[in-house]
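Can you give me the bound-state structure? Components:
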Amino acid sequence: MDKRSNPGAIGDRQVTRRDLLTKSALGAGALAFASAIDVRYALAQDEEPIKIGWLGDRTGDFSIVGVQKYNAANLAVKEINDRGGALGRQLQLIAEDAQSDNRRYQEMVRKLILQDKVDVLHAGFTSASREAIRPIVDQNKMLYFYNNQYEGGVCDSWVFPTGCVPDHQVVPFIPAVMEKFGPRVYTIAADYNFGQLTAAWCKKIAEQNGGEVIGEEFIPLDVSQFSSTITNIQNAKPDILIVLLVGIKQSSFYEQKNSAGLQVPMATTINMGQGYEHKRFSPPALNTMYVTVNYMEEIDTPEGKDFQNRFRAMFPDAEYVGMEAAAEWEGIHLHIAAVEKAGTTDKEEVRKTLESGISVDGPAGKVTIDPATHHTVRRIYLVHADEQHNIVLDQTFEEVRPDWLSTEMGCNLPEKPDNTQYEP
Amino acid sequence: MLARIASEVRPVLDGVFNAFYQYQDSFAFLVLSAIGLAVIFGMMGVINLAHGELMMLGAYITVGAARSGVPLPLAMLVAGAAVGLIGAIMEVLIVRRLYGRLLDSVAATWAVGLILSQGMLILTGPSIQGVASPLGSFRVGNTSYSWYRLLLGAVALALLVALYLLFMRTRFGLRARATIQNPEIARALGVDTARMYTVTFALGSALAGLAGGLYAPTATVVPFFGTNFMVEAFVTVIVGGANVLVGSPLAAALLGAINAFLAQTWGLYIARVGLLVTTIIVIRVLPRGMSGLVDRWRLRPTGAR
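Here's the bound-state model for the whole set.
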């Protein structure tokens, strides 16, 4: 019995005629208002707007990052429209909420592609959500920007993963933290493709640098209680704890380890930069947590501060401006830069133009699409949180290249179409 | 000689303490997750799918009060009382109309839960800054432990004892049990059963709010905070069966042991699998849960040895 198919069944006793009247009056008012806006736009623009499809987690487990990404997409679209749009056309953001639910990702991505007929898709947060929609994207030959850090390895003709990958994050930070603290590494990671593959990367890079992984635990996403994990880590006595935990429930780890008195230097590719754990948890839960990021609001560069000011001017209530907000902004600008260079929104043409090496200047300086792998060449910062949770910049790496896919796995998309995710 | 014995016994004692700590930690989490849900389900036959969101409200009220200067234990009690009041309002406005309509009450309370969590997201954004766990840590052997986690174990036990006394030793408890057993007769004897239901629902909600407040310092406080507890809450209630006084403690004792042992030995993934497999086995073997088993034992024909 699907009650949604029969709306009268639930509410017929509660809805009075007066309710119905006020509601329909309100609805009609809203419609009139909306169409007034449409008319205004139609008058201003001779042509159809460029449709930017956005799909992410505005609610649910991943909304802490999803809301930042959504706001960043709005900021990018507004800024491009304010300077006159692209090719003389305005941008229209068509955003859907996937509610942190992979099934809903698949439903809504079909809606955006088939019904809304968007010109480009900016979508996904977790790697599980990306893999849920990637086959649909490939099947429909949709230009897809995954503006998010992830475990790397996606070599796909239609996908542009513009965020950080292990080339940017794991390769620089493992030697840096091992030199500081010692070679014995313990990894706890979320139990899905992101956690498993990033943990494999950490192991590979640690061993290449003379380190040793003395323990690994993969934890289901719905676990929020970590007493046994904390004890096991204490018994193993690692020099460094690599934390690859994802989502609201797993972030409880920090408070619990702090309350249990576990003190160990930590490193991660995601925490703090995405979900601002150093702001959400009381010090010193994140003390000596190292992370490699493309952007965090505390990193003091002119372009970074400028981005943050524009973001906060548009969204005064924003709690944090993190690395994926920056990646989202860059992704939308990279696409539009390619559209302007190609002189069309035709997906095949734009893809070829992107493969000619498009750059934009963003919150973390210059970002360039690497033609062979569709990933980005970008600046990376290694930072850590101190005892009071201040963010300290340790090192800046300029023009870090995402070359593992092309040099070791033979990914060369302009020459050789592909849709594989390669594993380390 | 004595020193040698001590050095050999010491690691064993450390191991025993660790096992005890992990066990009471799992036990407390299961009891506190489930207790509000179990009271409402056991006493009223209503599956309250807004249970997690009531816990979330408890956490928000606790954090809000604590950050504005109220001492943390008092903030938790305030949260319990406030969520109890919200529960009473929910009962009068919605749940009351749906007694005896199990599926309708499931849908309605689920909807209330969605409104509460999404409403909180709109009102306060995706997260608020929490409060740190109080009391600090202590060491046994090579491992350090959290005092606050031990306190949670004690609070879980105290709440179970208090509930037992409330339902078995007070006039309210007598009337509440009469209302569950036979509402018509209870009404005929002058019990205001409608009020009993409201008070029981408010009690279950207050327990959810208090539990949410108790766990607020250990987790990140977000609109979807309640989902942290839903698996454990339902598993405990299903394994425990309808009688909250007997079933919930027994279920938490069994599941806590399984969870703590598996998590310590093979990690949290296997522990989660173990929890769910146990539930499936219990549903198959004891369809009425642990309290059904106890009832059968209590009502066994005497002399039939």
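A couple of observations. The first strand of chain B starts at residue 137 and ends at 140. The mean pLDDT of chain B is 87.
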